[in-house]
Amino acid sequence: MKLEDKIRSIPDFPKEGILFRDVTTLFKDPDAFHYLIDLFVTTLQGEHIDVVVGPESRGFILGTALAYALHAGFVPLRKPGKLPCEVVSASYDLEYGTDSLEMHKDAIKPGQKVVFVDDLIATGGTAEAGCRIIEELGGEVVSVMFGIELEGLDGKDKLKKYNVFSAMKMPDHT
Known about the structure:
Blueprint (H helix, E strand, L loop, with lengths): L7 E4 L7 E4 L1 H4 L2 H14 L7 E5 L2 H13 L2 E5 L9 E8 L2 E8 L8 E9 L3 H12 L3 E12 L12 E8 L3
Parallel strand pairs: 3-4, 3-7, 7-8, 8-9
Antiparallel strand pairs: 1-2, 5-6
């Protein structure tokens, strides 16, 4: 299956000059969504995974589906102020600004095997910040997985120490 055909591209969103890759069109296609999750599971074959971590918001969708398929727990990475207990946070740069993520301080136990998953990697800031939090809590990042890798933005450069998998590659422009 050619997953790239299931992605809608929206120019000038969320601001002028950005070509937004909309994965919701893939999520609503049951065959494509199933195929993507199965691809992630196959890539992790032979690995024991305790926890899947997914950032707000599309990482929640992929992360919960992957956690279910792996019979693992799921831990959300949230935007600031969304979690009720003590948190660990990390800031990062986006291709169009800056942001922060938070995770409950007790979400990952030392030694747990963790997969970070998100819909897309652009500059790599979100994933790098998430992996920093996982490691700060004592987790071992087994793999960092993406539905889409935007070529030309070199996001994987921030993740060189990890096993990175992208289901598809697309240009960062038209």
